[in-house]
Design goal:
The chain is α+β, with helices and mostly antiparallel strands. Helix content is 62%, strand content 18%. The chain is elongated, with a radius of gyration of 45 Å.
C-alpha cells in the first residue's frame, strides 16, 4: 500500500511538470491563432467593403481619425493661339510664379499648324488662381474640362488599415521573441512578412493619394494654325512661254530617243532583213 501511494504521487508530480512545460507553446499557438483570425477578418472586411476597416476590428485602439474631404482636382484645357510659343512662355511663367512645375512638354511642328502639349502640376491651393489668371489673359478656349474627385473615405480607410497592420506587426514581433522552437519562429516570421508587405502597400497608396491631393494636374493643348503664302496670279510672259516650249520640246526629244533605244531588237531585225533582200536582188541581176 505504501509503495502504491508513493508511485501515485510520482505520477501526479510528473503530470503537473509536463503540463507546466507545455503551457508556453500552447499559449503561443493560441495567440498566433487569434492574430491570424483577426487578420482574416480584416481581409474579408476589405474585400466586401472596399478597404473599409471599422474601428471594432482594430487590434489597438488609437484615436480614430475623422472623415474629411480629400479632393483630387484635374483639368484639361484646349487653346487656339496666334503665337503658340508666346502662349507657352506665359503659361510656364505663371506656373513658376504659383510654385508649380511642368511635368511634361511636347512641341510638334507640322506643315499647317503647331501643337504644344503641356502637363502641369499646380499646388491645390493655387488651382483656382491659376484658372482665373488664364481666363484674364483672354486666351481662346475651344475646350475646357474640370474634374473633382473626393477620396477622403478611401484615405481614412487606408489610415485605419495601416494602423491596424502596424499594431499587428508589433504583436507578431512580441510573439517571435517567445517562440519555443524553430517551427514556431518560422510560422511567426511568415505572418510578419505578410503583414509587412500589406503595410508597405497601404503606405504606398497613401503616399500616391497625398501627392495627387497636394498637387492638381492640368493638361493644356495649345494650337497655332500656320497661314500658307498665296502666290500672286499673274499671267505668263512671252519669255516664260518660250522657255516652257523649249523645255517641252527637249523633253519630247529625250522621250523619242529613249523610245528608239527601247525597241532596238526591231531595228536589228529590220536591218538584217534589208541587207538580205538587197543581197538577193544583186545576185539575181548578176545571173541574168
Amino acid at each position: 500500500m505504501r509503495y502504491t501511494t508513493i508511485f501515485t504521487l510520482l505520477l501526479v508530480v510528473i503530470f503537473l511538470f509536463s503540463c507546466q512545460e507545455n503551457e508556453h507553446p500552447e499559449m503561443l499557438q493560441q495567440e498566433l491563432g487569434d492574430l491570424q483570425e483577426k487578420q482574416l477578418e480584416m481581409e474579408l472586411i476589405r474585400e466586401t467593403q472596399g478597404l473599409r476597416a471599422p474601428a471594432t476590428q482594430k487590434v489597438s485602439d488609437p484615436q480614430t481619425p475623422k472623415l474629411t474631404p480629400k479632393l483630387i482636382r484635374t483639368a484639361f484645357l484646349k487653346i487656339e493661339s496666334d503665337n503658340a510659343q508666346k502662349a507657352l512662355g506665359q503659361i510656364t511663367q505663371l506656373t513658376d510664379r504659383l510654385e508649380g512645375y511642368v511635368s511634361k512638354q511636347v512641341v510638334n511642328n507640322y506643315a499647317s499648324y503647331i501643337r504644344v502639349n503641356l502637363s502641369l502640376r499646380i499646388p491645390s491651393k493655387q488651382f483656382d488662381p491659376f484658372l482665373l489668371s488664364l481666363d484674364s489673359a483672354n486666351y481662346h478656349f475651344t475646350e475646357k474640362k474640370l474634374d473633382v474627385k473626393d477620396v477622403g473615405e478611401e484615405f481614412l480607410d487606408l489610415e485605419i488599415r495601416r494602423d491596424n497592420l502596424l499594431a499587428m506587426a508589433k504583436r507578431y514581433r512580441q510573439l517571435l521573441s517567445k517562440a519555443n522552437n524553430v517551427d514556431e519562429m518560422l510560422q511567426v516570421e511568415r505572418e510578419l512578412q505578410k503583414t509587412a508587405a500589406e503595410i508597405e502597400k497601404a503606405k504606398g497608396r497613401l503616399s500616391y493619394l497625398s501627392n495627387r491631393i497636394s498637387y492638381s494636374t492640368l493638361n493644356i493643348e495649345i494650337t497655332q494654325e500656320i497661314e500658307q503664302e498665296k502666290k500672286e496670279n499673274k499671267g505668263p510672259s512671252f519669255f516664260s512661254d518660250a522657255a516652257d516650249s523649249l523645255s517641252a520640246g527637249w523633253d519630247g526629244v529625250k522621250f523619242l530617243f529613249l523610245l528608239l533605244l527601247t525597241i532596238w531588237p526591231v531595228w536589228v531585225v529590220g536591218l538584217a532583213t534589208f541587207f538580205l533582200i538587197r543581197y538577193s536582188r544583186r545576185n539575181r541581176r548578176e545571173e541574168s
